[in-house]
# Entry
Amino acid sequence: MTVTTETAPTPAPPRVTGQLVRYALIGGSGVALDLVVFLLLHNLTGMNEQLANALSTTLGIANNFALNARFTFQRRDRLVVRFLRFYAVGLTGIALTNLLFLAFTDGLGIDANLVKAGSLPLVLALQFVLNRKWSFA
# Structure
């Protein structure tokens, strides 16, 4: 009589978890780039926060697309279409942040730098879902 004791292998983390971790790390580099450029444009040059946000976010989007295409979603096909979709998703982030500027900076007088920094986690979560389901599907 043989007795076998089977131990269930430890399940690997779901693919989405790994993607989310990479997306967040890459997003961190884009956020840092976005925030530094925003601070420079808005604080040093006196550029309007809406325009500074659009420019700084565009740089962050381009950075994140290149890195996510390669490392997070490992997709190198249809790069132009994917970039356009990724950028469209990025525009949702610009729009959301601009709405937050209108509500909190213009409406309540909260410093634009704080609003920009506070918007980043919300924008990151929204964009991950949209990019995973549409840009890199």
In short: Residues 88 and 135 are 9 Å apart (CA to CA). The mean pLDDT is 88. The chain has one domain: 16-135.
